[in-house]
Design brief:
With 170 residues, the protein is α+β, with helices and mostly antiparallel strands. Helix content is 35%, strand content 22%. It is built from 4 helices and 6 strands; from the N terminus they run αββββββααα. The chain has a 6-stranded antiparallel β-sheet. β5 and β6 form a beta hairpin.
Length: 170
């Protein structure tokens, strides 16, 4: 019997955000940098990374999202420049991205299927929503694993039921 593994809640979060970028609320979104900020940038000519200052008003498009490289709980948002130049990609973590793109936070929260405004009419912050989403994803994965295990056990138990001689032999 195949062993069913639960998916890491952080991986569920990343998959959800990737879907929002490719097919959801962030598809073909063009964002303007709201405040000057330092970002990691990938050079177009040799692929090396360096920290660069990105000025206010520069237009970028969300292109991807991933977990931090050192197993950190940080989420790295990737952006492509609208007007290609020296850099082919920019990156910001989930602590700084909201400073550069304040409108993006509500779209990310909406992509997670959570209301962007609480009952008091105040904006909900990603830092508040992230643990809530991870806990819900963990619970859903546990339920999915239990369901798949039960289905597999039922299938093994009834494996010979469809055989034409089932029940004929002693």
């Amino acid at each position: 019997m195949a062993r069913v593994k639960a998916k890491d809640p952080a991986a569920v979060l990343i998959d959800t955000l990737k879907n929002a970028i490719t097919d959801g609320v962030m598809k073909d979104l063009c964002l303007e940098v709201a405040a000057p900020i330092k970002m990691q940038a990938k050079l177009a000519k040799n692929g090396q990374y360096r920290t660069v200052s990105v000025s206010r008003g520069e237009e970028l498009m969300p292109s991807g999202v991933r977990l931090g490289a050192k197993g950190e709980a940080k989420i790295i948002f990737e952006f492509k420049p609208v007007d290609p130049g020296d850099y082919e990609q920019y990156e910001l973590d989930d602590a700084k991205v909201w400073t550069a793109f304040p409108d993006l936070e509500s779209l990310v929260i909406r992509a997670l299927d959570i209301e962007a405004v609480n009952t008091d009419g105040e904006s909900v912050r990603f830092a508040q929503v992230k643990p809530q989403f991870l806990n819900a994803a963990r619970e859903k994965e546990e339920i999915r694993v239990e369901t798949e295990k039960a289905d597999a056990e039922r299938k093994v138990k009834n494996h010979y039921e469809d055989h034409p001689l089932f029940g004929v032999w002693g």
